[in-house]
Amino acid sequence: MFQLLNGMTFAALLFVVASGFTLIFGLLRIVNLAHGALYLFGGYVGFTVGGIAGSFVVAAISAMIFVAAAGLVLDRGVLRLVRGGELRQVMLTLGVAFVLNDAGLVIWGGDTLTVPTPEALQGAVVIGSLFYPKFRLFVLAMGIAVFAGLWLLLNKTRLGALIRAGVDDREMVEACGINIKRVFLVTFMLGSALAGLGGVLGGTFLALYPGADAEILVFSLAVVIIGGRGSLVGAATGALLIGLLNTFGQVWFPQLAYFVIFGPMAALLAFRPLGLFGKEA
Amino acid sequence: MTKLLTSRRSLLKSSAAAAGAIGMPSLVRAADAARPIRIGLLAPLTGVIAAGGKELVEGFQMYWEQVGMMAGTRKVEIVIEDDASNPDTALQKARRLVEQANVDFLFGNILANTGLAVANYVKNTGTPYFIPVIAADDLTQRTRIPNVIRVAGYTASQTAHPLGDWAYKQGYRHVATISQDYTFGHEQCGGFAQVFTEAGGKIVQQFWHPLNTSDFSSYLGQLVTAGADAIFAMETGADSTRFIQQYASFGLKGRIPLLGSMNATDQSVIRTMGADAEGIISCAHFAEGSTDPVTVKFVADYEKRYQKLPSIYGFSHYSGAMWVDEALGKIRGNVEDRALFLKTVLATELVGSPLGKTVKLDAYGNPVYDVMVRKVVKRPDGKLWNEPFETYPQVSQFWKYDPETYMKQPPYSRTFQGIKA
User: Fold this and answer.
1) What's the whole-model pTM score?
2) Which among A208, A209, A255 is the top mutation candidate for probing chain B, defined by the most B β-carbons within 10 Å of its own β-carbon?
3) Looking at residue A277, what DSSP letter applies?
4) CA atoms A213, A215, A218, A224: torsion sign
5) Which CATH architecture has domain B2-156+296-356?
6) What ipTM goes with this model?
7) CA distance A119 to chain B (A)
8) What's the CA gap between A63 and A46, in Å, rounded?
9) SS3 A59
10) Where in chain B is the domain with CATH 3.40.50.2300?
11) Span B250-286, pLDDT tens digits
């Protein structure tokens, strides 16, 4: 039970980050390798704003706005120049990741920082003999809320319909007279904002430091690959799978902590190259 | 940071100049006496341990600035290279420093694997290499390299031995250990486990987790049920921050006493932390909260210069620089005679050490220290630091064992922890 909660709270964080990743991946066909850096930057911004304003909510919102703006610059500023060349786009995002990383090191130094936990969520809840940190339960709730929000957005709004259509067939959407570029941009900003939110959540219970970006990126990549590109349900399933494998792997096969995650991923890809919920583009 | 950037830039220039001079080695030799002593400093300025790398450079530079960039009568030039926390890069940069920048000796590195890569390289070139932070036991034990000297450094198990003894004397009989799964961790846990079990204690369980474990919850769940009186945690960097925070948030703090390796509660970790880290016990030769007047002055100077308390990285490189400088003074800066230089460094006793005591090397090139038992407490101004409250005098890397016998046992590893059943 205890370990199950651990796995699920970690999965919730992964989902928040990976859902943004999969949106961008699915629609824009870009493996945005700067996603991890955006996550880290969101966390850092949350740390600074949280320190000044003293409010977790303000910190989270400003991190989301800031990172969404960074996404805007990234999409409009640089990715636009290489639109169409997928490999070039990927390489470009990798370059951006490096630049952001070094900028983070210059601005915030390399010390390990933590976004302050809000007063109300400090400490632990006691359920029977179980002792569980409140903040982690909050992350779990956030994960579910983000899932619900995204599901409604994708399934009940016009924008959602456009995004879904774009994932399935980009050219067709364009042919219908839709400005796909604007949809791209909105998606990119939304995905980035989710990375920023993830950064604040992760920065609170997993800490921020140079290299955190790469760790979360690898996990997100695994989530999206398992779940299938652009699929929300896939991202949720993938996050749960990775979160639980990560936790139980550490308990049952401590020597194989990494293999437990990436072994099954490789096996899955061998049989379902598009992931569990992936569709042919 | 600006300072660092400028030094990187000037380094570009100087290595370009050096590259130009390579074609004419005889010319360089002829100008020896007037030529400045050139030190190659390898530091991880990017990558996982970038924060530590920056402090390494700061401590090193602070010493040389204090002595006016002079060693004896010769000027000192520092060429800084970034090892990127990566052994391949470290090796490549060491090569560049030795073969192109013509440095007289190398200094630095933090991660054991980067240090081992460089040590292997200088084994063949004979370049003196000083390692105040590289703690791999065997570099001054079973596989010594004569030109690699651990000035102002320490071996991984050196400070873990006394902690094992101390833990037993506190009445702890069952201890569980958790550690990062690499040599430095294996050696510290081994040092702790051997002394603790030989005294009569029992290691109930050992956990090894990969470096950069973000979520410790599953380990914490098992630590609770391991039946331990105390837990020994061997963590560095961000892992340490996260472990200590999660230890508190899962409610273990206050229930099971936490003992840490010296690096687990180093300034580089606790300076950004709060109450979660208070009360952790560790053993080390350096404690920034010491009341020794020499240490107090060093800490105050450092804090004034860099607006933060010194970490083990800054302290060790400050002391290491001083050590080599004291040796160079004795031989009037004659760094060209490598054999003499190395011999002098080995024989030099560090008089001015910020520890406030004279430190000397044992016969194997590793310092002998008074090791302090420290506790993380809050200073009046709210900053956390390690305050010593007990001392084990003159602890060598061999603890109380005979060096020859000790080195006959295998080096500590995941499978050999020196545990006496």
Assistant:
1) 0.84
2) A209
3) S
4) negative
5) 3-Layer(aba) Sandwich (3.40)
6) 0.76
7) 13
8) 5
9) helix
10) 2-156+296-356, 160-290+370-408
11) 889 989 999 999 999 999 999 988 899 999 999 999 9
